[in-house]
Specification:
The chain is about 45% helix and about 0% strand. The protein is mainly alpha-helical and about 60 residues long.
C-alpha cells in the first residue's frame, strides 16, 4: 500500500499517484500537444494498492 504522503514524498506520478488519493495529472499541470484543448476528469482512488491503480486505469479507458 502506498499512502498519499509517501507517494508525494517519493515523487510518484501517474496512476500510482492517483491510486493513492492525489488528483494530479501531469497532462494538466504541464500540458503538451492537444491536452490544453481537452477537458477530462482525473480518476482517483484512495487505497494505494494494485486494485486501486487498476480501477483508475479502467475509469480512464472508459472515458477515452
Amino acid at each position: 500500500m502506498l499512502s498519499k504522503e509517501n507517494a508525494l514524498a517519493y515523487g510518484v506520478t501517474g496512476p500510482c499517484l492517483r491510486a493513492s488519493g492525489v488528483a494530479l495529472d501531469e497532462r494538466r499541470r504541464d500540458p503538451y500537444s492537444l491536452y490544453p484543448q481537452l477537458d477530462f476528469d482525473i480518476p482517483v482512488q484512495n487505497d494505494g494498492d494494485v486494485y486501486s491503480r487498476y480501477r483508475c486505469a479502467c475509469k480512464r479507458w472508459k472515458r477515452a
